[in-house]
Design goal:
The chain is of the alpha/beta class. The protein contains 18 helices and 21 strands. The longest helix has 16 residues. Bound molecules: ligand PMT.
Length: 477
């Protein structure tokens, strides 16, 4: 059965892009139901969207064409996914504060499907603290933002505020339906499937209706969480898990990484407001909510997936345990036991962290890991320099409760100027957030007066930095 996209269209010059969005979605076999605001109708007529979508277009909450239903509820219930494109500052504010004063804002409160929002507005409006606070609040509630692009705007300015291109929106939609992008509804209805079956005339057995309802308030983030989205507007790419390098059709080289550390980092970045892409080797972990997941096996596949994201990320966190070598030849048939010693020729894999670190742009933050068994800090410091990373998370994997597979970890952060920030043993979830917050705290400190080249040694804590010893330049972020 075709999936139904409920497309909310608000009043902005980017409405013309929504027309091609409908056309692209129809070509891919989606049903598209358009709900327009009065502002959108000033730009294009409902007839245009009706002709493109072959569906009734909704804009007036008091127009009840079908006496057997209630239009704004029926439309909301049909949606498998809601997309608001373009989304003005006005509709974002209304949704953030629960205002329902027209058809679209009413439908958005009634909808129980996941919601994607593609903002489009003037760069100053987009940057306004009120708009950013509303975006942070909606992000914390589980709404998924399709970041506006930078470029020339209709108002004559150049900056961030252009609605994402329709092709990219379609890609995000397809990522969602193919399971690559995991989204939860901000307002789920566990009985929606049952209601739909009843609407279709089916008598649903009681056993199917017995779905536990979420506790009141469950899933509603704390006020602190809502106002605490320091990575809002940033794109974070995380690698996680092991890689597998095939020897023959049944055997491979791999390592003990479970993916827990990397998945925890992806979830933490998302919680802190970022748009997150998780590029993962094979693991048994459920994908974190709200995160786009790209699955790979080999180191060179992970390398290619990361390179595709290289231009657009603000942070890159390399937590994957990537194989340093791969077999020179992958045998087409299973290697037979001969009883003799077997020599495997191994060749180096591409170094993902180094290729990213050495070409990073000034605004990008690159964080690598170092899994070590001896001289941990020294190796980590060398790795930071060699690979061009801003930060290395030094991980002594021989320590009890740390490293591979376990639920906890203990690390030392090696930052700009080789400064050390040791963190205590904690759960990988807490550690992930602490790593990100520590780096953010460092980045928010004003550069020291004597900014110059990187110093080569010295162990300082964040408190010491704050006390005046300060950050000493060279940290291109
Ligand atoms: O997954 P878990 O079970 O939770 O375990 C967590 C962990 C131990 C895997 C994690 O905390 C960790 O230490 N990850 C890095 C493991 C590793 O490969 O370290 P390394 O020192 O070999 O590599 C240094 C850095 O270069 C890493 O950021 C690695 O992702 C990167 N690298 C390595 C090789 C390669 N070909 N390309 C890379 O990008």
């Amino acid at each position: 059965m075709a999936r139904t996209i409920l497309l909310g269209v608000t009043g902005g010059i980017a409405v013309y892009k929504s027309v091609s969005l409908v056309s692209l979605l129809k070509k891919r076999g989606y049903d598209v139901v358009v709900v327009m605001t009065r502002g959108a109708e000033r730009f294009v007529t409902p007839l245009l969207f009706q002709t493109m979508s072959r569906e009734r277009v909704y804009s007036d909450p008091f127009e009840e064409a079908d006496p057997s239903g209630i239009a704004h509820i029926d439309v909301a219930d049909r949606a498998d996914l809601v997309v608001v494109a373009p989304a003005t500052a006005n509709v974002i504010a209304k949704l953030a504060h629960g205002i329902a004063d027209d058809m679209l804002s009413t439908v958005l409160l009634a909808a129980t499907a996941p919601v994607m929002i593609a903002p489009a507005m003037n760069v100053h409006m987009y940057r306004h603290p009120a708009v950013q606070a509303n975006l942070a609040l909606l992000t914390a509630r589980g709404y998924h933002f399709l970041e506006p692009d930078e470029g020339p705007l209709a108002c004559g300015y150049t900056g961030k505020g252009r609605m994402m291109e329709p092709e990219a929106i379609v890609e995000a939609i397809e990522d969602y339906f193919s399971g690559r992008l995991v989204l939860a509804s901000p307002n789920p209805d566990p009985l929606l499937a049952v209601r739909r079956r009843e609407k279709a005339g089916e008598r649903v057995p009681m056993a199917d209706v017995d779905v536990p309802s979420p506790a009141p308030g469950a899933g509603v983030p704390s006020l602190q969480a809502v106002h605490d989205a320091p990575l809002s507007g940033r794109r974070v790419v995380v690698t996680a898990g092991p890689t597998r390098e095939a020897i023959d059709p049944v055997r491979f080289l791999s390592n003990r990484s479970s993916g827990k550390m990397g998945y925890a980092l992806a979830a933490a970045a998302r919680r802190l407001g970022a748009e997150v892409v998780l590029i993962t080797g094979p693991t048994n972990l459920p994908p974190p909510e709200g995160v786009k997941v790209v699955r790979v096996e080999r180191a060179r596949e992970m390398h290619a997936a990361v390179m595709r994201e290289r231009e657009t990320f603000d942070w890159f966190i390399a937590a994957a345990a990537v194989s340093d070598y791969e077999p020179a030849v992958v045998e087409a048939q299973k290697i037979k036991k001969s009883g003799e010693a077997l020599t495997l020729m191994l060749v180096p894999t591409p170094d993902i962290l180094r290729d990213v670190g050495q070409r990073k742009k000034p605004h990008q933050t690159v964080v690598g890991f170092a899994a070590e068994t001896n001289d941990v800090v020294e190796h980590a410091r060398n790795k930071r320099r060699r690979k061009g990373a801003d930060w290395i998370v030094a991980n002594d994997v021989t320590e009890p409760g740390a490293g591979f597979e376990v639920e906890t970890n203990r690390v030392v952060l090696v930052g700009p100027n080789d400064a050390l920030y040791p963190l205590p043993l904690m759960s990988k979830e807490d550690l992930a957030e602490t790593i990100i917050r520590t780096i953010l705290a460092f980045q928010s400190m004003p550069p020291a007066e004597d900014a110059g080249g990187e110093k080569t040694s010295g162990e300082r804590s964040i408190d010491e930095e704050r006390a005046g010893k300060g950050r000493t330049g060279g940290d291109a972020r």
